[in-house]
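Sequence dictates fold. Next comes a concrete instance:
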Amino acid sequence: MTDALQALPWRQFICRVCGLIYDERLGDADSGLAAGTRFNDIPDDWACPICGVGKADFEPHEPVAMARAASAPAVAIAPRQAGIVVVGAGRAGWQVVQALRAQGCTAPISMVAACSGDVYDKPQLSVAMARALPLAGLVRETAAAAARRLGVHLLADTHAVAVDLPGRRLRTTRGTLRWQALVLAHGAAPALPPELPAAQVWRVNDLAAYRRLRAALDGGPQRLAIVGAGLVGCELANDLALAGHQIHLLDVQAQPLAAQLPPAAGQRLLAAWAGLPIQFIGGARVTGMAAADGPGPRWQLTLAGQAEPLQTGQVLRVDQVLCATGLRTPGRLAASAGLAFDTAAGGITVDGRSGATSQPGIYALGDCAVVDGRASRYIEPIARQAAAISAHILGLPLPDGAPPPMPLLRVKTSALPITLKWHGSGAGTWQTTVDTADELRLLQHDARGALLATLLARRPGGEIGNLGTVV
């Protein structure tokens, strides 16, 4: 690096899709970018380590302080004054606050957080061990610092209890808040099968739970059962196996990621795991869990299923049980406000353009929202949803452009990273275009030949290329 470049101030760039901030001063060790790597020097095939989009989807970023409209006076943060109340301090909640302040909102904003409210990247939880990320390094910004920067009245470790719709009040475990606009960003909770007792099963859905799991695994290699081989289950299996644990990955489907990916991709992932201590047991259902007798593993799971070599009544003995069987939005707040709730999809029904619910003045986004009968529990849509909700609250034009049919899906299994990009919607047929020892590429077309989706599974070390132009 020349002396002239070294003299330039360090810049930051933000991913327009997931909100990841690339800081030139810090670089990105996980992606092989040393500290001090200028954004212009990053290779064009570099991908965002969180959501997988390319360098072209980043733009210059200036940290947002409490923004004020040019002609508007500052408004003091007064919790008792009716303003905007945000329930939830995950990525979705903070993203809404960021969007509101960036668009000139000076109204009081209160945030109700059932947790500490610290800002962190949730997708990192399922890959932190493989990347040797220390627990302290997972927090990007403390809740107190974010609240000061954005002018937010933060109620941490506080639960929202009920919505008083006629009075426009939110009842919490620390008192009542008045609101002019209410944004629900409280996420979704793990859907635990009735056969698994909640007190004995790990559910890694937030930073606090992940910290407790890491503490329980600090004593050395253990035998772990992960129930559910979807996106989170597969990423956790890959990560914990790399940390030296013996993994038994269970799913009712015959192969991993069956609900997200075509069969060829699931089969390729199993092949990539051949060198890791991961045993996948497909077609398996847990019928019971009890304390194990004698020395050795603490728990025994009773399994039922038809797939070989599984036999109904087989017992699996393990030290810890993790559950990754999907998410469902708690319906208490929605019911108290009389919001339309999609029971099948497990979330609050919202308008796809504005994020508005069935009740005026109430919005929802992130894991707790359902659009057109589909929950979108991915990182990619959150920034777009937050910008739309902010604009609607402030009476500004909604963002241009229709959202993609489905978000970009990136499976962060380091043995075989997989990226799925949708170009359209509807039923289609998958076609294999590349099938080598290191790479699998698939295209999905509808009956008229229109491209619906592109999938790339490639062993680490090769160029990912442009998913949008694969033919």
In short: The two ends are 38 Å apart (CA to CA).
